[in-house]
Design brief:
This protein is α+β, with helices and mostly antiparallel strands. The protein has one helix and nine strands, in the order H-E-E-E-E-E-E-E-E-E. The chain has a single domain, classed as Lipocalin, CATH 2.40.128. A hairpin with a 2-residue loop joins strand 4 and strand 5.
């Protein structure tokens, strides 16, 4: 019985911290690159291009009766990594597509905090929380392209 207690303690001390560090190390895989979110609730596709300081999200939506998705909006954030698995994103620019071309919208002073909750080699689960009065949030699976 004492042997099993010792084995359990050794497991808890050595193995558990190693597995949590392994998952955090995976977050580094997603700091830069190109990604895709398939937002089925809003019938849109979001393409993300992220470097070490900027993140651009291009939103495409399929309009009723249309054969394919059309470009709808571009949102640009300045990002700062807080730790390996979370970053803040401050809105820099929003451009919407109109029938007459693109139009920039006034920039709102909003900050989005993004956390990578789970990850694999080619995808991660993202939770985003806005700093608005409602602290609205979302969760998406993000796929590496």
């Amino acid at each position: 019985m004492k042997v099993w207690i010792h084995i359990s303690i050794v497991f808890a001390i050595i193995i558990v911290p190693m597995t949590s560090k392994a998952q955090q190390a995976n977050c580094k895989l997603f700091h830069t690159g190109k990604y895709r979110i398939m937002d089925t609730a809003n019938k849109s596709d979001i393409l993300i291009d992220r470097n070490d300081s900027l993140e651009t999200r291009m939103i495409y939506r399929k309009k009723p009766g249309a054969a394919k998705e059309a470009y709808e909006m571009q949102v640009v954030f300045r990002i700062k990594w807080i730790d390996e698995c979370s970053y803040t994103a401050k809105l820099v620019k929003t451009v919407i597509a109109t029938p007459k071309g693109e139009r920039s919208l006034p920039v709102e002073k909003k900050t989005l905090t993004v956390q990578i909750l789970k990850s694999s080699n080619d995808a991660y689960l993202e939770k985003g929380t806005f700093d608005d009065k409602h602290h609205s949030s979302y969760r998406y699976v993000v796929y590496k392209l």
